[in-house]
């Protein structure tokens, strides 16, 4: 419910004569650069204090909604099954929840060994 209300407050409104409610209430210009695609894949930064040298620097998550308290995002961590609130997020707007567990399989590459030139052993010792 938060995301639709948040987006409605950032959209032009007829009662405000086409003005944006957020701009009318706060008196500040509205920015749309922080808007993201719902349920897209995102990576949350893990602070240095909360990880060891060999731990991952980011946690793969799913974007849920915008947080109304501060300029933060709410994300779902499917591995630990918990909601994370963070500002430090990198979004993959083209990857969605349905594609989350799917990793691309490595492609088989056929190499024709006959086409690779093999130098003769005498070419290495040409000055001997």
Write the layout of secondary structure elements.
Layout: H1 2-9, H2 21-26, E1 40-45, E2 58-67, E3 72-77, E4 82-86, E5 89-96
Characterization of the model:
With 128 residues, the protein is of the alpha+beta class. The protein folds into 2 domains: 1-28, no CATH class; 37-100. It contains 2 helices and 5 strands. It has helices at residues 2-9, 21-26, and strands at 40-45, 58-67, 72-77, 82-86, 89-96. A 5-stranded antiparallel sheet has the order 4-3-2-1-5. A hairpin with a 4-residue loop joins strand 2 (58-67) and strand 3 (72-77). The protein is elongated. The model has no long low-confidence stretch (mean pLDDT 77).
- Please tally the β strands and state the result: 5
Arithmetic mean of pLDDT: 77
Number of helices: 2
* Cα Rg: 26 Å
Strand ordering within the main sheet: 4-3-2-1-5
The H/E string reads HHEEEEE
Low-confidence spans: pLDDT under 50, at least 5 residues?
none
Class from secondary-structure proportions: alpha+beta
Any idea how many domains? Answer: 2
Strand content: 25-35%
Indicate the overall shape. elongated
Helix content: 10-25%
Q: How many angstroms separate the termini?
A: 81 Å
Main sheet: strands, sense, barrel = 5 strands, antiparallel
Characteristic terms for this protein:
128 residues, alpha+beta, 5-stranded antiparallel sheet, 2 helices
């Amino acid at each position: 419910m938060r995301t639709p209300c948040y987006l409605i407050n950032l959209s032009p409104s007829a009662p405000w004569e086409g003005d944006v409610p957020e701009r009318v209430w706060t008196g500040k210009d509205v920015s749309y650069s922080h808007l993201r695609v719902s349920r897209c894949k995102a990576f949350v930064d893990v602070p240095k204090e909360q990880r060891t040298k060999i731990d991952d620097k980011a946690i793969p998550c799913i974007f849920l909604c915008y947080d109304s308290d501060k300029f933060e995002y709410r994300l779902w961590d499917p591995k630990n099954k918990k909601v994370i609130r963070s500002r430090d997020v990198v979004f993959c707007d083209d990857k969605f929840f349905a594609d989350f567990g799917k990793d691309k399989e490595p492609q088989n590459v056929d190499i024709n060994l006959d086409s690779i030139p093999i130098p003769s052993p005498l070419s290495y010792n040409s000055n001997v």
